[in-house]
């Protein structure tokens, strides 16, 4: 397994878990006694098993599809990332979260329909400038870690959005 995937799994898992803790404590204000540890473990597992490998692999594919490190290349990568990958990834993330949370197929589909457009539009407000900088300044082996560090707030939003029933 490539080093980028091995290193991305724990980082993505830990930061997805941290995002959930922040969502529960700061956004939802559950307090320590009201914290849902199982939910945090589920989000950590999704980061470890899904986010880390998929996003890490996507960055390697993107580097092969659009080689180089110029500003124009960074913009092209961002356009492909945000135009093709982000919509698919976000839909899959919401679906996986629904399955992990035990939703029926009908409930999961209704939740995706309720949350997808808002989450995608929020994504487009945050990620294009982050990704241009990431693709231009950051070497491939560190891109997922950089994105996941920036994504701590995004992970908090996704956890809140995905776990709102």
TrEMBL record:
Key words of the record: Membrane, Transmembrane, Transmembrane helix
Topology of this chain in the membrane: Multi-pass membrane protein
Localization of this protein: Membrane
Entry keyword annotation includes Transmembrane helix: yes
InterPro entries according to UniProt: Mpv17_PMP22 (IPR007248)
Residue spans crossing the bilayer: 43-62, 83-103, 140-160
GO cellular component entries: membrane; mitochondrion
Coarse class of the protein's main subcellular location: membrane
Record-level Gene Ontology MF annotations: channel activity
Family indicated by similarity: Belongs to the peroxisomal membrane protein PXMP2/4 family.
PANTHER family: PEROXISOMAL MEMBRANE PROTEIN 2, PXMP2 MPV17 (PTHR11266), PROTEIN MPV17 (PTHR11266:SF17)
Name used for this protein in its record: Mitochondrial inner membrane protein Mpv17
Species, as recorded: Meleagris gallopavo
């Amino acid at each position: 397994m490539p080093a980028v995937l091995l290193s991305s799994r724990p980082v993505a898992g830990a930061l997805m878990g941290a995002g959930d803790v922040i969502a529960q404590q700061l956004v939802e204000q559950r307090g320590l006694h009201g914290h849902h540890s199982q939910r945090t473990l589920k989000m950590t597992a999704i980061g470890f098993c899904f986010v880390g490998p998929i996003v890490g692999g996507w960055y390697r594919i993107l580097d092969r599809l659009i080689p180089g490190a110029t500003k124009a290349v960074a913009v092209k990568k961002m356009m492909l990332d945000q135009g093709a990958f982000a919509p698919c990834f976000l839909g899959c993330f919401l679906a996986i979260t629904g399955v992990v949370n035990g939703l029926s197929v009908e409930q999961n589909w209704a939740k995706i329909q309720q949350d997808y457009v808002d989450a995608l539009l929020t994504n487009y407000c945050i990620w294009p400038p982050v990704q241009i900088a990431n693709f231009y300044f950051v070497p491939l082996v560190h891109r997922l870690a950089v994105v996941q560090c920036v994504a701590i707030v995004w992970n908090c939003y996704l956890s809140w959005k995905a776990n709102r029933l």
